[in-house]
Amino acid sequence: MRRRLVVLSICLLFAIPAAAEKGNQQSSSVQFGIGISGGFWGVSQFKIQHIPLEFRQVPVHPDRNPADFPFNNDDPPSEIRTVNDDTVNLFPIGWDIAVTPQVLFRNKYLLRAGPQWSPPLYPLHPVAVPGTASASERNTREQNQMGTILRGTGTSLTYYAVEQRINYIPGALAQLEARKGAVFSFIAGMSMTSCRLVVERGYDRYNSLETLDRSSLATLYFYFPHAGIRLTNTDEGGRNWKGGLALLAGPVFIQGRAASTAPNFQFSTTRGFMVKIEVLFDYFHQH
Asked: What is the pTM of this model?
């Protein structure tokens, strides 16, 4: 699905200028332009499970108190702590920006396609919190020398956490807009964006986090077939620029591809629902 969407967008990317140039030679009813859009979106389901064992195993801190060993009845004392697997809730809100060549037919039908980026709105970074906090309040998963999340003395807690980061490889956006009068439009389209997941391991000492290392876990891809309406400012005085506000909604399909550093990670395709508020600016060259 991802390859098909990218190929379609690339084809449209090159086809739009060619179609517009040909149309301009034949009829003034075809206009070529450029669009810039950005929006905020929310997903109903956004979580991961089954973090591979190698990402949850953390060596004990070198400054540990030897009096704390052995622990968990390990004989000889274990130098590795395995933090329990748990569901990690990722932040379900993001934003994106797209730059799209576009062509307007008969001042009514607008076709746009181009690259799209989607940085996390609030990147999920590990934060040290009291060990009594609930799982929904913590974005770290921790364990002490006794195998619990309670804080104590003599040794640090080990932890792992999942971070959301931007994927600098762009996704794609393709939309068809049908105008109904000067203000209202109907939009249908497809977009694909992505983000990277990184696992951080380390130590929770003195209510602050000490990072041991970070490793790539996976790339998540968001496929968003959508439809909605747009309100556009009226064209007064033949302005080349037009602004608008759109409300889009539709199902979202989230697929994961494991990083080379995490061959054992498996991400099941997740289905949810996405709502997006989008701001659009269109520019058309007036002949």
From this structure: 0.76
Contact 201, 126 (CB under 8 A): no
What range does the domain containing 6 cover? 2-284
In angstroms, the CA 262 to CA 215 distance is 8
**Separation of alpha carbons 120 and 45, rounded Å:** 15
d(CA 267, CA 258): 8
- Beta strand residue intervals within 106-207, DSSP E: 109-117, 140-143, 157-166, 171-180, 184-205
Specify the number of domains making up the chain.
1
Neighbours of 269 (CB within 10 A): 10
Largest CA distance in the chain: 86
Tokens of 287: 């002949």
Check if the beta carbon of residue 141 is closer than 8 Å to that of residue 83. Answer: yes
Spell out the SS3 assignment of 204-269. EECCEEEEEEEEEEEEEEEEEEEEEEEEECCCCCCCCEEEEEEEEEEEEEEEEEECCCCCCCCCCC
pLDDT above 50: residue 241: yes
Question: pLDDT at position 6, please?
Answer: 47
Question: pLDDT tens-digit profile of 90-133?
Answer: 766 778 889 999 998 888 899 999 999 887 655 556 666 555 55
Q: How many CB atoms lie within 10 A of CB 275?
A: 16
Measured CA to CA, the distance from residue 110 to residue 12 in angstroms comes to 13
156 close to 208: Cβ distance less than 8 angstroms? no
Alpha helices in the chain (DSSP H): 2-26, 53-56
CA distance 279 to 262: 37
